[in-house]
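Input/output pair, single chain:
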Amino acid sequence: MDKPPYGMIAILFIGAFVSFMNETFLNIALPSIMKDFEVSASTVQWLSTGYMLVNGILIPASAFLMQKFTNRQLYITAMSVFTIGSVLASVSPTFAVLLIARLLQASGAAIMAPLLMNVMLVSFPVEKRGAAMGVFGLVMITAPAIGPTLSGWIVEHYSWRTLFDIIFPIAILTLLLAIFKLKNVLPQKEISLDVLSLILSSIGFGGILYGFSSAGEKGWDSVYVYGTIVVGIISLTLFIVRQLTLKEPLLEFRIYKYPMYALSSAISIVISMAMFSAMLLMPIYIQTIRGISPFDSGLLMLPGAIIMGIMSPITGRLFDKYGARMLAVIGLSITIYTTYLFSNLTMDTSYGFIMFIYCMRMFGMSMVMMPVMTNGLNQLPQRMNPHATAMNNTLQQVSGAIGSAFLVTLMQNKTEAEMESLAMSTGGDPAKMAEAANTAMLEGINFSFQVSVYIALVALVLTFFVKRVRPEEDEFMEKSA
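Output:
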């Protein structure tokens, strides 16, 4: 095999890093944007929810796009749209313009990760994929973790518009490098777009994501929540049935006939749900209950992100040598124990202890995600890679949204139940009421972490069935050949 195109992969990495970081970059700035544009919390939240929705809708189409167009055409188009969105966001005069800009960013970012992963799968032989995918894991996990820390510092000292001013020059530089340096390595074929499939997948994934993303705010009994989830599930079912009958499906569900890919997909879904517990619940505990500043809250998570970043390439090399099962079992055992420790937080748990446990949890996580995912991809024939990476990225978005909504809703319900029982003992005293509210919220957070322990245990049981595999060039899709 020729030497992998490292220069080209580096350009793709920069684009993926910026797009991943951009997903969480704005979260800490939302209160400032609410104040500037005089909008409510439920309205401003669409800057995050809308970004996730566009990703969830467009990622399923990435398999079609990567087969229809060259990787150079796709990347330059995606980065151009992302750059235009960044400029528009920086100068946006109204909230509506800012939201449109954010959705433009998302539509450009949606193609970045699937494209990078496909180029890497084509560029590296199976025995070296672990190390390469470990570096990809570094980008996928550390970029969103660094986002809140960096944006917390920027928002504390400058305007929220500075966040987009920083992204713009990086995006321009990456775009110029892509125009002059990017070559085509992915195979193309004549393929037609099934419009009905695109509509069904957009309604399906979009409906489910919207429903679960809105549950924390509107409540599970809202018609907007359960109505959109039901419509999403029906559309998704029709979408899957249609894909199994098409000669050239938009998203190939027959990849699930490969047992290790199917298993890796199930484990990734469960881990994504559990992983979001700490990313969402820790800032609530640190900022709301403990009164620690947004910057210090983001700073607490930074060492964990750095450890994960350092470990990802190391884990990749260990995967090449020992396979996924041993790494995943060790990593999930650490993750489960540290999550259990997080389910016993108190009003005076030290900042240093929280940071240490969070670091250990990230250390455990770094040994699971990429090895399991790479092992699953290794079983597939190369022609299935675009469908597999599109499927992985779609399921991560959906399971992440479902997991976060589920855990936050559990926390809120537990908090309300605890508050009802504590309110009787306060006698209406405002100081006691505030203390009771914090105590109730702490109970809610601890309860959500307890549930996360059981979710992670499911993933641990599944990892014992992981086996090391190599690609099978069999008679896959015999009927459609």
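Residues 424 and 470 are 63 Å apart (CA to CA). Confidence is low (pLDDT under 50) at residues 473-481.
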